[in-house]
Batch of 4 targets.
Target 1
Amino acid sequence: MSASDPNEILLPPLETVSTVTGAPEVISPRFRMPGFPRGQRTPGRRLSWVIIALLIALTLLAIFARLLAPFDPVQPASGLNLPPGTPGNLLGTDSIGRDLISRTLYGIQVSWFAALIVVASGLIIGGLIGTLAGVFGGWLDNLLMRFTDLFLALPGTLVAIAIVAALGYNLQNTLLGIAIVWWPYYARIIRGEVKSLASRPHVEAARLAGTSRTRIVFRHIIPGVIPTAIVTASLDIGNVVLLLAGLSFLGLGQPAPAPELGADTARNLGQLLTEPWIPIIPGLAVLMLSLIANLGGDAVRNLIGGRR
């Protein structure tokens, strides 16, 4: 067994008497911690990597949606209300004859990248405010946190709806409305993490050694905050997908005939009893996006948490 094995515990040698010869002998106290052998992946970690692979596949699907779509999503491609399984239109067509595979692929692209944009913008704004509040403390911390509390006290969905209604109904304004109400959660979480890291012994030692505040922030604080920020953001993507689909369902997304999952579900609800596949397929796409995003967030948390 290797002496550099991190799973081994070294104790002082123990002298005992052999039961065979009666002579004194030394027993090595080196033993391996209980659990999985080194190099063997636990089933939970293997499942996490499988989910991460699904997350990557979904991202690639969104990136290449325009290449994979067989038809123009806004132009009629075939007959009206064709059922799934029709040759040339595997998911069927809607009441105008537009191919549902093409519209669903374009809708996945819009929803997925819109959610990533909202989460990234919220993480940048909230991360900057949380880091400043945690590092400087004092009056600046109080000012920034009271400003954050003001946004947290507002009903986020209603504020987003009001912003979109005031600025106009399109995707850009919808993303802006969601981003404005989404950053305070990151500010609170990252501020708490910065405060926790700032009290660690190695940070205190660096401060006592005369290291500048800027160097401490970029060398010790920010690298420690990044894993928490990644986990928080990955767990949030599914929530943004659902909120974006909900606002689109209410008519606050892209105007017709642009493909969007929530809007396509709402526009075709009248056919739920006669041609149910038309509103159900985009709804199932929203479910798939949200489910994979949430599972992916849990997988990222498990993998990063196992390394910390």
Target 2
Amino acid sequence: MTATFESQIGSRSPAESDLDLTLRARGGDAAAFELIMRRHNRLLFRAARGIVADDAEAQDVVQDAYLRAFMSLDSYRGDAALGTWLARIAINVALDVQRRKGRTVPIDDNPDMNDETAAEHSKSFVDTRDEGPDAAAERGQLRALLQAAIERLPPIYRSVFILRAVEEKSVEETAFCLGVSGDVVKTRYLRARALLRDALGAQLEAHANEAFAFAGERCDAVVNRVIAALHAQGLIRPR
């Protein structure tokens, strides 16, 4: 999301927690569920994109995930962060979509250690606070190359890389989202990094958290369609 969009979200409800919003949404408060979606849209889109290989398909996954999540709000107890809980639902929806299309996505907890170690390396980020126009343009080109390279990763590695490097989730959060062990997350992340380094060079990872943006019209489309569907079913009150 853009800084402006994030500022807009913050100005609407600067102190209201996800749990507070969940309690309101359980009572049919459309505004609360809309704010939940706007806070977590990008995370869910990126989580879905780790499984499916098409933006439009990922957007459909996000919409279905929110509808499924709304029906299951009573089961959310705050044991995990709401975004992590929603991302797990999105991943499960994406896996269901792939299975229905006859595509096998091996995300289960199989230790594919190979020759990789289980220790992660720290990421090296580039300081871009004082960059000029040329540097900004170069970063844009690198970002496009990186996103294309991530898309070429097998889902078993792409899903982990997007959650760990793009969304900067912890090993534990990533493991929860994917339903695998922490050791599997570490190993697959290392393998994903190695594959990307082979293709692009290690410095490109510095721009990972800018890939797969989800804001503007696509963000609004998901929110409006989910709210309309819930309202049509009489599950929430009109905004």
Target 3
Amino acid sequence: MTDPQSAAAPSAAAASAAARAARHLAQVEESTRHLLHTVAELGPGAVAEPSALPGWTRGHVLAHLARNADSLVNLLDGARTGTDIPQYPSEEARDLGIEEGAPRPADVQLADLSATDGHFTAAAARLPADAWAAEVRHRHGYRFPAYEIPWRRLMEVEYHHVDLDAGYTPAHWPAEFAAAEFRRLAGKLSGADLPAVELFADDTAERAVIGTGTPALTVEGPVRALLAWLSGRADGDGLRRTPDTALPTLPPLG
């Protein structure tokens, strides 16, 4: 006879997905706390100043972060209900939300970020364990499992915190985030159309090869510095190169 409680229990795969999501949600909470602290310290005119992203002010970055949280709530709700809820109504709506939100003063930006983070956290808490294995649709059309949503939010918070150019740098990235993103971005650039480069993270002993062919160049440095270069947040000048030649231009990661 089947135990009703056992029958209702999530599968091992679903339980693993839920545990992974829970761990990454805790990281999102910590990273968001640091982000909100940075925003709270911004002066009255700081949001109108340029960010590290070409053509965007700090206000653009903050509005994007808030609207991204809203978009991920849509995906979480879709996973919970089994419906295909678009991440954004349209690309035009996404861009408009950023442009309209960018000029707001710092206190309004902070309140929006705090509120949307609360909505994201609440939406995640509503998911039953088996829903974390459901597939959702990215705004570019491809599908991915819902348990990746927390890490995607973590990427947005950590990368764009640096992009604010308000004192938070790649050196502040959490160690697990930096190591995981180093592996992810190096994997994306494996086989890319550029001369092969061997990367060595001297603080984690991790190696990776990007590009095609046999590496003729080795680039070494801390994993955070390597990730800053791979992600376009630094030019890589502080990395050690053997031989001492110029770094290749990396293709857009998309």
Target 4
Amino acid sequence: MTVLAQPDTTASAPREAAQDARRAQILDAARTCFARSGFRGASMQEICLEAKMSPGGLYRYFPSKEAIIEAIAQDERCGAAEIVQAMRGPGPLLDRLIGCAMGYFGYMRDPGACELMAEISAESLRNSEIGKRFAQIDDSVRDIMREVFEEAIEKGEMPPIEDLDATISMLQAAVDGIALRQINDPDLSLARVEPLLRRLVAGVLGMKA
């Protein structure tokens, strides 16, 4: 009987880990550059300097600035999906919503995260191809919120809402506004935000805080 040799995955694991680390290093550097100079203003040379890599080394991972932006968009999409999954979990609806928002605020406190969000918002307003990529993330969050709210209304967890889409937009605007406010108001701590946001969301949804 012929015994087929199994691939040795132990040898490739350190190499793949190193590649993942280098990729993350590039994306972190790109986020810093985009937050500082904008998507349009940041150059591949600037990203190379920030990442402390040669152009040849960077291009082995990403052939263009557009490829870097696409990778960041994919990471943001996965991060957003992970945060909003808190809306689907067990427990009272209001607790789930506030938990989701607080997780988002915590994420946005990472260095440069708010500045990058501001740049993404500007690109979305320009209706650019970059803005359209990130708008897809926003649409996916809205879809989950709508699904969660419709299910909650059906179960009697919250009263019926005449204009659900406008309500979702208002809640998103409040959460995004608070996140951006952290740029100019670093003393606006999560502990201070949580009880106020709870009352705000409960009021918008017609629920008891």
